[in-house]
Task: inverse folding
């Protein structure tokens, strides 16, 4: 199973000069946990900002009017190609202790964001857990 | 595989009269995405507050000095017993579009919080994805 087969929706992007408050607003409205930070070219990610980044900013008393490029992860965010496997996606999330991966196409353009919840949403994955259930199931 | 077999750490609780700012601070320090809200008895959850709840509060311009019982999910949070299967945990997360489950023991006492990332952290689960990899693997 390839990453592109389970990508569910277009990525939600935000400009690097937007504020943390605007980022929270966009996350809430779009119901996503990660925004891709861009500058002039909306297809070229320059960073990411997650819910966790915002929580940490609050904890550090950083004003919500700070721009997202000061609070997010710039440059060294974790990404995967759309034609890599879901297995590798899970491996990367686990290795880096993250819940989202930026997904790029062969040309390096942004095509989506894969979340750990997208993995659980897959029938095939959830059913792989069901073998455990059979011996003692009453359902 | 049972929920109690993959529970990784004790739950992190917060009192119902703590502020959203204090909740963010605790989430950041403990590196968790969900706090269990309690009143006098630390073993009896009365609600939960998630990172997403805090993001939504910011989006709705709710002051960070608001108490967590005004912002979290009270009473009707989703929970699972520790002796239920990991399969059912994944099913519940998927059904309710959530990333965490409160875990209770037979007596109804709080014993933990299971996150969708705990599922991905399991070798058995991540390896169930690796079958995909074999036909075309170059790794």
Result:
């Amino acid at each position: 199973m390839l990453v592109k087969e389970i990508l569910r929706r277009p990525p939600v992007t935000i400009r690097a000069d937007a504020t943390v408050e605007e980022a929270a607003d966009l996350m809430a409205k779009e119901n996503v946990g990660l925004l891709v930070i861009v500058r002039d070219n909306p297809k070229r990610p320059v960073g990411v900002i997650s819910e966790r980044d915002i929580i940490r900013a609050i904890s550090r008393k950083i004003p919500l009017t700070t721009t997202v490029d000061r609070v997010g992860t710039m440059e060294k965010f974790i990404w995967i190609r759309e034609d890599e496997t879901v297995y590798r996606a899970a491996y990367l999330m686990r290795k880096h202790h993250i819940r989202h991966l930026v997904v790029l196409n062969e040309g390096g353009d942004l095509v989506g964001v894969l979340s750990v919840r997208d993995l659980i949403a897959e029938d095939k994955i959830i059913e792989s857990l069901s073998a455990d259930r059979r011996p003692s199931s009453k359902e």
Residues 20-30 of chain B form the longest helix (11 residues).
